[in-house]
Write a structure and sequence with these properties.
Layout (H helix, E strand, L loop, with lengths): L3 H28 L16 H20 L13 H24 L4 H4 L24 H14 L4 H5 L3 H8 L8 E5 L5 H9 L4 E6 L2 H10 L6 E5 L12 E7 L7 H14 E12 L9 H10 L5 H5 L3 H7 L2 E9 L2 E8 L1
Parallel strand pairs: 1-2, 1-4, 2-3, 4-5
Antiparallel strand pairs: 5-7, 6-7
Helix pairs in contact: 1-5, 3-5
Length: about 350
């Protein structure tokens, strides 16, 4: 049972994390050239107090689950202060290049590079106008700082909303017999939290980027129970009905509609009957209509060509068409957490 000191330590760590990335956000905004106002209707924006209130509620929800024993206090995956500072310096050094792409509308550098000819077209883009797309060592080094800055320190806690449905599935089961796959695992942060909470579980992370997988191996680790695989989510290298849980974090809003359906079908194929698909992704317009302005401008300021289609969609209906039974959906700050069962 966590103590009062544990609670203070958790609150202190998360407050420091939010402060660190909030400072990056504010400093970064000052270095970016203003973009022209969008030439399309934009909905209402939440004020800063609303956002901070919802973010605090998210951390309070996580602590309540830790206190209830659903999973242990998450570790810091950024424990090395020198590495943290090094990534911060690299982030600010790269900002002018990101800003230049944003103003020039350049988003296809990975597509122009013949070294990436074997990868899907939708993947070979500068998402977020990011240098290198998702295909260079420098990009892998910068990615977590960029995403945490975007969400002002709340990206990891939104990822960790997947832990509760994992814990629920594991009730009455031997974790050593459970196989979990995280698709589009990126730098591996979700599996870092899962492996800490349930070290006996058999885990795999799959991604199209070899450099991001290398980053995950170095920073999260690898073992007989934690493996990293190169591959596409729409062609999973697993046999039918071989997995208990498949997770996907912030993947579906970055996929074309046709590929989304293919990925859902693959998730259903590899899951055992009764297995769970746990998906963390962006909120939709229906989730927070009063925050529609954020969803309207996000793809304008950050290259996200499939985002508008995602936020206007009905994700539960998409998964139902793929043979998945909807169990629950949780709106968590700027993310929605969906749990589906394979029939």
């Amino acid at each position: 049972m966590p103590s009062a000191l544990d609670r203070i330590a958790y609150a202190t760590q998360q407050t420091a994390r939010v402060g660190w990335y909030m400072a990056h956000y504010v400093a970064g905004r000052r270095r970016l050239k203003p973009m022209p106002d969008p030439e399309f209707p934009v909905g209402r924006f939440p004020d800063r107090a609303e956002l901070m209130r919802e973010m605090r509620a998210l951390f309070q929800r996580e602590w309540a689950e830790i206190e209830a024993g659903l999973y242990p206090t998450p570790p810091s995956l950024d424990a090395d202060p020198l590495d943290l500072i090094d990534r911060s310096v690299a982030y600010f050094r790269d900002l002018p290049q990101v800003d230049a792409r944003r103003h020039a509308g350049v988003n296809d550098e990975p597509f122009q590079d013949p070294a990436h000819d074997g990868l899907p077209r939708y993947y070979r883009q500068n998402f977020h106008y990011q240098s290198g797309g998702w295909l260079t060592e420098e990009s892998a080094k910068l990615y977590d700082t960029q995403v945490e800055t975007l969400f002002t320190g709340a990206a990891d806690v939104m990822r960790r909303r997947a832990l509760k449905p994992v814990a629920t599935y594991l009730e009455g089961r031997n974790q050593r017999e459970v196989r979990l796959l995280d698709i589009a695992c990126g730098t591996g942060r979700l599996l870092g939290f899962v492996s800490h909470a349930w070290p006996g579980m058999r885990l795999s992370g799959l991604d199209l980027s070899p450099t991001y997988l290398d980053h995950a191996r170095r920073h999260i680790g690898a073992s007989k129970r934690l493996k990293w695989l190169e591959g596409a989510a729409e062609r999973l290298p697993f046999t039918d009905a071989s997995l208990d849980i498949v997770t996907a974090v912030f993947l579906f809003h970055e996929l074309p509609k046709k590929v989304r359906a293919e990925v859902i079908a693959e998730m259903a194929r590899v899951l055992k009957p009764g297995g769970r698909a746990i998906v963390v992704d962006s909120i939709t317009e229906a989730d927070r209509p009063e925050w529609k302005g954020l969803l309207d401008v996000f793809p304008y300021y950050f290259h996200e060509p499939y985002f508008a289609d995602w936020v206007a969609s009905d994700p539960e209906a998409l998964f139902a068409k793929g043979g998945m039974r909807h169990l629950e959906t949780e709106v968590a700050f700027l993310s929605r957490v969906m749990v589906f069962e394979r029939g």
